[in-house]
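Step 1: inspect the first sequence and its tokens.
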Amino acid sequence: MRWHLALPAVLTLALSFRAGGFFAGTTALLAVVLAVLLVLRVTLGQTPFAGWSPALAAAAGALGLLTTWTLLSALWSDAPFRALSEFDRTLAYTLALCLMGTFARRSGDLDRALQALAAAFAVVAAAALLTRLFPEAFPADAGKEPDRLAFPLTYWNALGVLCGVGITLALHCTAGARQSVPARVLGAGALPVLATVLYLTFSRGGLVAAAIGVVLYVALAHPRRLALALLAAGVPTAIAVMRAYAADGLATGEFIADEAQQVGVVTAACSLGAMALRAFCCLADVRIDRVRVSPLALRTALVCTAAVTGAVLLATGVPQQLDDQRREFFDIRSRLEGTGDQRDRLSQAAANGRVQHWEVARAVFQANSLTGTGAGTFRLEWERERDIPLNVADAHSLYLEMLAELGGPGLLLLAIAILLPLGIAAWRLRGAEHHAHAAFLAASVALLVHTGIDWDWEMPALFVWFFATGGMVCAASSATSRVPSRPGRVARVVAGLGCLLLAAAPATVVASQAALDRGTRAFRAADCTRAVDGALDSISALPSRPEPYELLGYCNLRARRLELGLAAMQASLVRDPDNWEYAYGLAVAQALNRVDPRPAAALAFRLNPLDVRTRELRDALQRGGPGRRARAAARARIPFQ
């Protein structure tokens, strides 16, 4: 039973419905689960290292060193919990790579794993579509921009790239070689749903990722069944997207139930129609598979197709249009024009602040090229150096953020871990399973290009599948590798204990996050008794974390336990000294304790000069004596409320 082939899909599905795995508690829980699975694998498996290979060792070693470098960065960032949160995520990716790589690679394994992934992406897309078209029957939090579909990942661009990768894999399922009839039929049925959801995210990056994935898959796999697949699924997919595009209420926020229901009916009909057409076309697949095309004829056809496509693009002025859009994208003065219709954003190329994010990341790297400023610290650098009032936590580019936070060594280790599976997959394009490896390559490149312009790395739902299937690609083949000897009991116990030791740090984060969430909910409900209990439990689980001290501080200040509140605020700032929120809280506590708060207020302003709250507090505390400052502090806004 090859149960592990479904693991990437199961993890992706579970994480997608937990906000993509973005939050610290979910990421840590993922690392714990993978560590436990690896313990079970090495202690109970008959040949737990059957798939271990030099390529897997190199990729796992690079990712493991990156994980270690991430944790060590706490030494120079003085923000241990930020480093620990990033450590948990990178550890989870490392464990996914190692776990899947321990299984010897067999013919057809990668195909089956990709089929399961395509199904998982389709399920996520279907759930998202139901919440958008039938919100009364399937209620969900619409997020900050209700016009843009974001559920269940809670971020529209993340859902967009997920659908883009899903479209690539669904196309492989319906057009690739060695696909069973059910896979071909279901793959065709998934395309209208995935494409409609991709459109409803209004994600320009997601559309680009989908285009890259599809074009690259066709170019690398050149599947013979492509024409039949497009005939069966292409037209229904286009009809579904066109109907969604025509629904004004889905793009403007003026939701019209009848209109949305019509879109749902059309999408369902297109999905069923695509499956029916693809089932009928399966009769012709056998004949197409028998056709023999010489490599020379295939190369000639590809060259001719590329030449004709290039000529058409030149004749229609596409290169000039692309150059104009490039200029608009990198023009820091350009902004997306808010017309109230989300469809208009699809024709605009403004970067929407990304260029400024990248400039700050580049400047930070130039100042700290060897070590960076420490894992998880880009938000702090952005708040201090930004020139636009836009709040972000990430650089919207994995590669630039890696340079800014972990320096050149961090990016080098990341590149090794990413490029090794891609290189092996590219090498195997000449083999019998070239379609599966082409699909893996196309989907991976689509994701990796998109992560250069967004924060996909922080969404494990988007990356855990890549490292899991990457481990499969790097694993040794069961057909060519010698049968490994079974490890002894001592070796199994030592390996298992090592895996459990790795799970210790993320386990503390899981416990701490659960308690902190409980305390934060109580604080917002004005129940400081329960909030204090939650904060103390969070501190007990993970003393290096600053947030529970901040929560404890505000609760003590509310209860007029002023000295305890001051001590708690000081403790929070010590644990994250470059975070304006904790300097702000310290200034409030000092003012209430009749201690001079002006240095702390000035520090909060320096750390985040464009935030109106830091400016208001600094100005309010500069005037009058201790009594007036205490009254001003009592009226100060709490940052996390």
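Step 2: inspect the second sequence and its tokens, then contrast the two.
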Amino acid sequence: MKKNRSPYFPLIISFILLNGILFSLKNVFEKNGIDIDFIMVANLILFIITLAGFALQQKGLRSPNPNAFVRSVYASMIIKIFICLIAVTVYAFLNKEKINKASLFISMGLYIVYTVIEVGTLITGVSKSKNA
């Protein structure tokens, strides 16, 4: 494999694979009453905010000031949590009577998957960084 891959490569591949898995299991989800559309939108939102947060962290990693990296990690985490909170609140407000808990739990699982990939990629970047 190529050693000079973009640090965003694992996130992009994960998004593509997760979408493929979700799309291929669409009938199974619908048969079990799980809202696949919500999960697909949640996957897209999580991908976008993880990508934005990772970009912020990469910028902090390149800074000679170690405090800039710590601030970027905290800022990324806070932004991600608030966007997820807003998305769940909007979903709950629009679907007062029929909140699909299984879809919410699957989306929380996707959040964990993206966080693990982000942290793993970030650890690799920190170990290669001159400023670490």
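Step 3: confirm your contrast with the notes below.
The chain has one domain: 9-117. The mean pLDDT is 88.
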